[in-house]
Write a structure and sequence with these properties.
By secondary structure, this protein is α+β, with helices and mostly antiparallel strands. The chain folds into three domains: 165 residues, TorD-like, CATH 1.10.3480; 73 residues, Alpha-Beta Plaits (2-Layer Sandwich); 51 residues, no CATH class. The chain is 52% helix and 12% strand. The strands form two sheets. A four-stranded antiparallel sheet has the order 2-3-5-6. A two-stranded antiparallel ribbon has the order 1-4. Helix 6 runs antiparallel to helix 7. The termini are far apart. The relative contact order is 0.09.
Length: 310
């Protein structure tokens, strides 16, 4: 880590916090639909709701205490565990880190990095994937869909970056002194987030014969644990292996849903079921919309499937 990297990370966190804190001009209605209401918003922007099922729970009190230790007070109109406030706190910590590097205070900079790793592991990194998935599954306006992608990608990569720094791992190549093994539980939905964030490309998704498979190439895995840290279902475990492994391993398989409009392969049924269980388990129309392939989603934007059937 160095002053320029820390400063750039702080600026990105601050940009994301600003975008989540208030509506983009002209998108007030969409912002309200996604994050505010009236009624039930698409994606609650509060950690306590995602992790405890209530507003202003223990998570909110815990992060408020952390802010107080740093002499910070959240904006009056936002609860302490609002996504914008937690992102802004990360911007603050990264800025402190940059200042410490700039002044040659390595111990202080490393302390800031440990604070960031703890906050991501205990709070922001635990629930942001769920928020972003809700936004992306809602056919959100491109501005907010892109914002969800940016937040997901930046925070996930930051988790991996900080962990590599702490463990002294090399980001660009596998650790040849040991090997690693990855396992997943039945909670895995094959959403693909782990494959997108695996920098050495040790994890991959393939779809063939109506099945999606999650595949591990053990010889490529460098043990960075980004997949374990960032899995929205907490379904991944990374461990040191007893010996070297060369053969690829299929970690998980699931049947693929077919597009109700054109019959093309769509998304893994496990992922579809999990999103519906959280959003609207009895909504048959929503299931059909979510099962559309990307091409049909574009064609039918703004058109209901009932209208299309007519």
């Amino acid at each position: 880590m160095d002053v320029d990297t820390a400063r750039a990370r702080s600026q990105t966190y601050a940009h994301l916090a600003e975008a989540f804190s208030r509506p983009e001009e002209g998108l007030e209605v969409e912002y309200a639909r996604l994050f505010v209401g009236p009624g039930r918003p698409i994606a609650y922007p509060y950690e306590s709701v995602h992790r405890e099922g209530r507003v202003m729970g223990d998570c909110a009190l815990a992060v408020r205490s952390l802010y107080s230790e740093e002499g910070l007070i959240p904006e009056a109109n936002l609860l302490p565990d609002h996504v914008a406030v937690e992102l802004e706190f990360m911007a603050h910590l990264a800025k402190k880190e940059a200042e410490a590097w700039g002044e040659g205070e390595r111990d202080d900079a490393e302390k800031c990095l440990r604070q960031q790793e703890m906050f991501l592991g205990d709070h922001l990194g635990r629930w942001l994937p769920d928020l972003c998935q809700g936004v992306l599954a809602s056919q959100a306006h491109p501005f907010y869909a892109d914002l969800a992608h940016q937040a997901w990608d930046h925070v996930a990569r930051d988790v991996a970056r900080i962990r590599r720094w702490r463990e002294g791992a090399v980001a660009t190549s596998a650790d040849t002194s040991c090997s690693w093994t990855v396992s997943v539980t039945d909670q895995c939905t094959l959403c693909g987030s782990c494959t997108q964030l695996c920098e050495p490309r040790a994890l991959s998704l393939t779809t063939e014969d109506g099945e999606t498979r999650l595949i591990l190439a053990p010889r490529v895995c460098d043990g960075c644990c980004a997949c374990e840290q960032w899995c929205p279902e907490r379904a991944v475990t990374v461990e040191r292996a007893g010996g070297s492994q060369d053969e690829s391993v299929v970690l998980r398989t699931a049947r693929v849903a077919t597009c109700p409009r054109c019959g093309a392969p769509s998304v893994p049924v496990a992922l579809l079921d999990r999103v519906l269980a959280r959003a609207a388990p009895d909504d048959a129309g929503l299931r059909r919309r979510l099962a559309l392939c990307p091409k049909c989603k574009v064609i039918l934007t703004g058109t209901s499937l009932a209208e299309e059937d007519q």
